[in-house]
Specification:
By secondary structure, the chain is an alpha+beta fold. The chain folds into 4 domains: 93 residues, Thrombin, subunit H (Beta Barrel); 86 residues, Trypsin-like serine proteases (Thrombin, subunit H), CATH 2.40.10.10; 99 residues, Roll (Pdz3 Domain); 64 residues, N-terminal domain of MutM-like DNA repair proteins, CATH 3.20.190. 27% of the residues lie in helices and 33% in strands. The strands form 5 sheets. A 6-stranded antiparallel barrel has the order 1-2-3-6-5-4. The chain has a 6-stranded antiparallel β-barrel with strand order 7-8-9-12-11-10. Strands 13, 14, 15, 16, 19 and 20 form a 6-stranded antiparallel β-sheet that branches. The longest helix is centred in the N-terminal third of the chain and has 43 residues. It is globular and about 70 Å long. The N terminus is likely disordered. This is Protease Do-like 10, mitochondrial isoform C. Keywords: Hydrolase, Protease, Serine protease. Pfam families: PDZ_3 (PF17815), Trypsin_2 (PF13365). One of its GO terms (molecular function) is serine-type endopeptidase activity.
Length: 455
């Protein structure tokens, strides 16, 4: 009887200990989870559940907005032949995307409608294609505005509202009509980088947003939606990489639209017309008498067509632009602990707007005023939507030198085109307005003589 009582007592004690241990472990796990939860919320400002819900909300909102705003664009285009400027290349059909903005306009990419013969637009869920007219096109920023006169098209169409520049890791949804199907497509991604990027179509350096959502041919011109507003316009991807796409941010879009509304046509983005060198080298800073607390960039070349040519001099040190200090690497502060090249501040200025530049010249600080304007290079970077000019005299074919002419040498045109022409096209500056470099493209007399000799 005594042994039975001891056994029962031991079993009860073991059960009590195991329950107490389980309770303690459960409390520790709960405390640990709560601390991790609070740490995540303190670090990122949003809980994982809330972040997941926001991503799903962005996806759902994007789909709802897309049905009545995003359109598919059909373009028939014909590019000129720069080797034979009196001929055109064969026609080609391309497709892209666009979306409705305020004022009964459609915003899309410039490369979607470049060299167009005619443009058609189709709404989601509608079999009818409507004729569209290109009202304005900016090839530097790769944006274009279309208008449709047919009132039937605008029934049920809602304009999208432009938002702000998204922060890193914010969710966006890219809406468009990419290759692989005919219906509308929505892909999700997050913002991974915001910085000036080379725009492939216009060969210009403007701000762009890098995202990890897939942007394929056909997505061009479609909106990237964050919440219920547009965060940018999809326009290119990174070749040789997976799931790296780029969208045009809202500041560039607003600059393009406001310029068209104020001037009636696209004018361009302003430039100082300078070639600058960084001053990260200590000996270089000492040579130009820069104090330890001074930062800036060195002016190495000035375009004679710019207003800066009358104000600045070679070897000036630009310390600040509109009161914003410029670092020795040429960057300025941008948002929270981000930096961006000071060229972005210049490009966002309006045409004929003044900018205050603080410089260091011969050891003395000065503050100067410069009027900003778009500046055309000596050799045009692109010539979309117009035929090339040429002149034939006695069998000699003369044409102005342009980069599209050099592109006829193939994708590796930088190495395969004539070296002297390539160097002058990329580096030489104009000395006066409307100056052109004219080259002898072909000699037709030789071909005529050969035909006579062999006939």
């Amino acid at each position: 009887m005594g042994s039975f009582v001891r056994i029962a007592r031991n079993l009860l004690w073991s059960s009590f200990c195991s329950q107490s241990l389980s309770k303690n472990v459960s409390q520790q796990l709960f405390t640990s989870s709560a601390s991790v939860f609070k740490s995540y919320k303190f670090r990122y400002g949003r809980t994982p559940v809330r972040k997941h819900r926001e991503a799903n909300a962005t996806h759902t909102t994007a789909v709802e907005l897309a049905f009545n705003s995003v359109v598919k664009i059909f373009t028939v285009s014909c590019s000129p032949n720069y080797l034979l400027p009196w001929q055109n290349k064969s026609q080609r059909e391309t497709m892209g995307s666009g979306f409705v903005i305020l004022g009964r306009k459609i915003l899309t990419n410039a490369h979607v409608v470049a060299d167009h013969s005619f443009v058609l637009v189709r709404k989601h869920g509608c079999p009818t294609k409507y004729r569209a007219e290109v009202k304005a096109v900016g090839h530097e920023c790769d944006l274009a505005i279309l208008v449709i006169e047919n009132k039937e098209f605008w029934d049920g169409m809602n304009p999208l509202e432009l938002g702000d520049v998204p922060f890193l890791q914010e969710a966006v949804a890219v809406v468009g009509y990419p290759q692989g199907g005919d219906n509308i497509s929505v892909t999700k991604g997050v913002v991974s980088r915001v910085e000036p990027t080379q725009y492939v179509h216009g060969a210009s350096q403007l701000m762009a947003i890098q995202i990890d959502a897939a942007i394929n041919p056909g997505n061009s011109g479609g909106p990237a939606i964050m919440g219920s507003k547009v965060a940018g316009v999809a326009f290119q991807n990174l070749s040789g990489a997976e799931n790296i796409g780029y969208i045009i941010p809202v500041p560039v879009i607003e600059h393009f639209i406001s310029g068209v509304e104020e001037n009636g046509k696209y004018i361009g983005f302003c430039s100082l017309g300078l070639s600058c060198q960084t001053t990260e080298n200590v000996h270089l800073r000492n040579h130009f008498s820069m104090l330890p607390d001074m930062t800036g960039v060195l002016v190495s070349k000035i375009n004679p067509l710019s207003d800066a040519y009358k104000v600045l001099k070679k070897d000036d040190i630009i310390l600040s632009f509109d009161g914003v200090p410029i670092a020795n690497d040429g960057t300025v502060p941008f948002r929270n602990r981000e930096r961006i090249t000071f060229d972005h501040l210049v490009s966002m200025k309006k045409t004929n707007e003044k900018a205050l530049v603080r410089i260091l010249r011969d050891g003395q600080e000065q503050e100067l005023s410069i009027i900003l304007q778009p500046i055309q290079p000596l050799v045009p970077v692109h010539q979309f939507d117009k035929l090339p000019s040429y002149y034939i005299f006695a069998g000699l074919v003369f044409i102005p030198l342009t980069q599209p002419y050099l592109h006829e040498y193939g994708e590796d045109w930088y190495n395969t085109s004539p070296r002297r022409l390539c160097e002058r096209a990329l580096r030489e500056l104009p000395k006066k307005a409307n100056q052109q470099l004219v080259i002898l493209s072909q000699v037709k007399v030789f071909l005529i003589l050969v035909q006579i000799l062999y006939s």
